[in-house]
Amino acid sequence: MLTLRQEDILLDCRADDWRAALNSAADALHQAGLVAPGYRDGLLDREAQSSTFLGNAIAIPHGTPESREHVRRTGVRVLQFPAGVEWHDGNRVHVLVTIAAQSDEHLDILRQLTHVLDREGVAERLAAADSCGEIAGLLSKAVVEARLDADTLCLGFPARDRQELALAGAARLRQAGCVGSDFVAAVTERAPRDLGQGLWLVSSDRGVAAPALSLATPESLLKQDDEAVAGVFCLATREDTHRGLLERILALLENGAANELREADAATVLARLAGESAVATTRQARVLNAHGLHARPAKQLIQVAREQGLPIRVRLAEGGGEAVSATSLTKVINLGARRGQPLVFSAEGEGADRALEAVCNAVAEGLGEQVLPFDESRERIEPREEDTPPPEPLPADEPHAAVAASPGLAIAPVFVLRTPRFDYPERASDPGVELRRLEQAIREGAEQLEALVQQARGGEVAQILSMHEEMLNDPELLQAARESIEEGGSAEAAWWNAIETSAHAQEMLADRLLAERAADLRDVGRRVLGILCRVELPEPPDNPYILVMDDIGPSDVARLDTSRVRGLLTARGGATAHSAILARALGIPAVVGAGKRVLTLENGVELILDGERGRVTPAPSAERRQAAEQRLAERERREAEAWEARHREAYTRDGHRVEVAANLGNTTHAADAVERGAEGIGLLRTEFLFMAHAQVPDLDTQIGEYREALDALDGRPLVARTLDVGGDKPLPYWPVPHEDNPFLGLRGIRLALTRPEVLETQLRALLMAAVGRPLRIMLPMVKDLAEFRQAKAIHDRLLAEIPETERTTDVQLGVMIEVPSAALLAPSLAAEVDFFSVGTNDLTQYTLAIDRDHPELSAQADGLHPAVLRLIEMTVAAAHAQGKWVGVCGELASDAIAVPVLVGLGVDELSVSARQVPLVKARLREFDLADARAQAELALAQATSEAVRDALEVR
Q1: For a Cys staple, 230 with which of 262, 504, 595, 860, CB 3.0–4.6 Å?
Q2: Which of 915, 855, 234, 941 is nearest to 576 (CA)?
Q3: What DSSP character marks residue 55?
Q4: What is the mean pLDDT of residues 846-857?
Q5: Contact, 153 vs 269, CB < 8 A?
Q6: How far apart are CA 759 and CA 755, in angstroms?
Q7: CA dist list (Å): 219 to 66, 134, 165, 328
């Protein structure tokens, strides 16, 4: 968990605007050794998605998930701005709590800060603070939660009097680990106090590990001294952390709900103590957001709740947490709801059913985020190993598709490090001996890990191995193994069963990032098991090799001799696994998730491993090997030469002009794109501006943002895509009805035309911002001429309304070719549009009916599929027949194999990520137009994308 120390705080900072403040925060993280310089872009991208302003003059900037690769170690830096900084959402900020985290540690900080948001005067005190200790005191507070859940209840206990009920409640708290024997002894010495309505209370602060509340109710009607006994509360107190539990008991008494408790089940008791009345209407909804109910979805939830016009409360269905107002951001965030946890919403009065249905629907739809279903029953039933047929060997000289994890190209013989076979007895006769053996093995494992930490290269390696040390000391793992040993299991069997049970539970998590951490747990488990069984791993060869394993654990990566290991290949895993993260950190090409067939490779077999495309080719032919060697030899030379020549205009070897532009998701990156050699912006994703605001940005705001990019371009053309949002990426202030398939629903130009005033404001802002500069506007997700004409009517009217002196006169209006129907209708569109820009990412997935993010099919979503290439060919032919130009702005435009094919098809402009601009320009200089046309013809003659790549690679 992230914690705040005084040395993490920087006082008396100054900044002219929020970007300057964010840059200072990025510098502070970098200077502290927490992040690489690239993390700065992640901070800016996160603000483009949604403001990180939290409240009470506090913002919590943190990077996007994509930027986590730049985090060297987890940490935090707090910057105080006494004069304040106006954040981009209009709020005033005095403190930035800037976070560098590899996973979701920022949620811990968020929960710790929620207590600050409800206190008056904090903003002023943060601004005026003159010591790090004062700021740390204002911001820091340990979150201590008093426990009340089904495990602390003791319902229907066969007691004869109040004291036995009190002791039953105390015993239940002891079983739950909240109190010790001292607390139970204290309860025996105290007589319960009468609260009224048949309820009694006994409490103590002796032997309390965690504040908690138990309720013990009698099995049958109980009277003592002519007084009814409906139940006895047993309260474990510590300082004032139990106060909330007392307040809930008082509220229960005030509502006269005590009589319901004696025969109630656990769910009813927890509901009444949570503040839900018997007449309240309740509904459940499961949190589906990958990272739980953090700030962005929480904001969306409270907005929906406020729209219902009556009080709505919410609590976690699990446990006995208090129901809180669903319109309070701090209280909703403080629930700490994680993915998969059910929420209980309650409301009373007329319209309650309707209101709860609206709120639950919003939760089910993801609260403004794209979500995946949660399936509690999802389990794997794996066949026994002896019943499983062995996988077929990989064929020689044929590329095998997998998941690209770390870029680079490697050619070397393989060394297959198969998981060692651990032979051990399942049962043992002496539990004491087995337990001592296990504890000794765990100590040895910890010593090995500590030695690896000291030897580790780079912050990420040391950090993850330190995490392995923490896993090794997990008391729950040891307790599970201890219980198995006490039941007669051997140390080996008990330990591995505990590891497998925990790892399997992690793999069942819908959050792919968390599920892939099961590899870390098994890595730790194998270390201890190897010590117990005295099994040592085989030594790798002395010559350079590509390491092949079922799943490479972080400690395996840490032991790698990078002077010999040319690449990594795994049967399991994903691009977000720790092994992949570390491979990228060490600069080792890696391909993961390749399937069991890769384990059939024989040691010494030569392999080509392409970490950029996610492909491996065993036993390559001489021609394929020669082509790969040439790519490998030229890689470094090309990169250096490309950078030196980045500002030259882009031409093929024989002088055919092809513009190379940059794709941008934020106007602040325009200057960097120009520095990298971009000849313009081929795709400006304008939705960043709309996502950064709580409401539709007004005309002046949009003009200012677009002008920033135009100023940086200094006369180079800007291609701006109009707002492209919808069911798959909604805006909180522009609700879209739930759609079963949002990718085929109301999005792009379809959605914009439902609110033409928003589209009109954006078009006006673009035209006015670009006065005196070239501007290209393109419309997304156009399916036919009717949609284009509707938007063009608004565009043409604005040209007539705005004086030429106040707008650009060099403007073109085009469409993106993303929908196959648009490509098929390109001749009719080309007669009226000014240009086409092919979005190959969406065009590919729509043409092939494959979600490019699908975990199993994504490797097949290849833009070089001949069906996609034919649609591009049709688009270019139709455009050129009308004298119009065509660009490509998808990932295919930066694919080194695809570049000559696209040029050969007649594409006039390639728009790629800014980092790829120098390399794409260099690639153009390597071939002439005739060669490009020949490659295009060759590609179109193939039947599959695999055949296309094979033909082009051998050529």
Answers
A1: 262
A2: 855
A3: E
A4: 68
A5: yes
A6: 7
A7: 56, 54, 10, 40
Structure tokens at 908: 């006039």
Query: 212: helix, coil or strand?
Result: strand
The number of CA neighbours under 13 Å toward the Cβ of 147 is 20
SS3 assignment, position 617: strand
For residues 590 and 921, the model is more confident at: 921
- State which of 558-567, 742-751, 879-888 shows the largest mean pLDDT: 879-888
Question: pTM of the entire structure?
Answer: 0.46
Q: What is the mean pLDDT of residues 334-350?
A: 83
Tell me the catalytic residues: 62, 294, 578, 889
> b vs e for 40-77, b when ≥16 Cβ sit within 10 Å of the residue's Cβ?
bbbbbbbbbbbbbbbbbbbbbbbbbeebbbbbbbbbbb
CB 508 within 8 A of CB 378: yes
Average pLDDT of the residues of the chain: 82
Directed axis angle between helix 295-306 and helix 352-364, to 10°? 160
Contact assessment for residue 887 and residue 835, using Cβ atoms and an 8 Å cutoff? yes
What is the full DSSP assignment across 786-836?
A: HHHHHHHHHHHHHHHHS-GGGS-SSEEEEEEE-SHHHHHTHHHHHTT-SEE
* Burial class of 410 by CB neighbour count within 10 A (0 to 12, 13 to 18, 19+): buried
Distances (CA, A) of 686 to 544, 659, 691, 759, 856: 47, 22, 9, 12, 31
What span, in angstroms and rounded, lies between the C-alpha atoms of 285 and 308?
17
End-to-end CA distance of the chain: 54
More confident: 938 or 228: 938
CB 808 within 8 A of CB 777: no
C-alpha torsion sign, points 294, 297, 300, 306: negative
